[in-house]
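Entry type: protein chain
Record version: 2
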Amino acid sequence: MFDPSAVPPDSLYVRKIVARRYAERGFYSDILWTLHPRYYPQLFKTKIVYEAYPQSQEEVDEMRARLRLPVSVIYDP
């Protein structure tokens, strides 16, 4: 049986980027993406307080490199 809570939320933008990467590579690789709490408040049980949300893909790439994450992270504005 399909469990919708097991599917992570995404946007049309993220779906487009993932589809483009699949078309380029021919396979799905490990990909993460940002999720702005302002646009998806119903997904969170507690109020999220944050100092700042990344402003660009470059900023997300810098954070990923600093954290040494071995996967791609898509910035979803």
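Comment: The chain has a mean pLDDT of 83.
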